[in-house]
Amino acid sequence: MIVDNLDKILGLFGLMIGIELIAIVIFTVSILYIRNPVAAGLIGNISSLTMTLGIIGYAINRDRK
């Protein structure tokens, strides 16, 4: 049981790192094209938030079944 929980924790940690890396790439690309740091920051944060909410929703839906 501890190993199962450890696997879940490590998997979620890996997903969070991946989400943050994707958000950094989206922020960098949008700052290069938009040239407005506030808009680029909003785009990066919103993309990170939606990816995180999607993963949480997927995990909740998977645990219900």
- CA-based shape: elongated
Termini separation (Å)?
19 Å
Tell me the number of strands: 0
Low-pLDDT windows of residues: none
Overall pLDDT score: 83
Cα radius of gyration in angstroms: 15 Å
Query: Could you describe the largest sheet, including whether it forms a barrel?
Result: none
Number of domains: 1
Helix-strand pattern: HH
**Class derived from helix and strand content:** mainly alpha
> What is the number of helical segments per DSSP (H or I, 4+ residues)?
2
Fraction of residues in helices?
over 70%
| Residue fraction in strands | under 5%
Features:
0% strand, elongated, 2 helices, mainly alpha, single chain, 65 residues
Question: How would you portray this structure in words?
Answer:
- With 65 residues, the protein is mainly alpha-helical.
- It has one domain.
- 94% of the residues lie in helices and 0% in strands.
- The protein contains two helices and no strands.
- It has helices at 2-34, 37-64.
- Helix 1 (2-34) runs antiparallel to helix 2 (37-64).
- The longest helix has 33 residues, at 2-34.
- 2% of the residues are buried.
- The chain crosses the membrane at residues 12-34, 40-60.
- Keywords: Membrane, Transmembrane, Transmembrane helix.
Layout of helices and strands:
Blueprint: H1 2-34, H2 37-64
Helix pairs in contact: 1-2
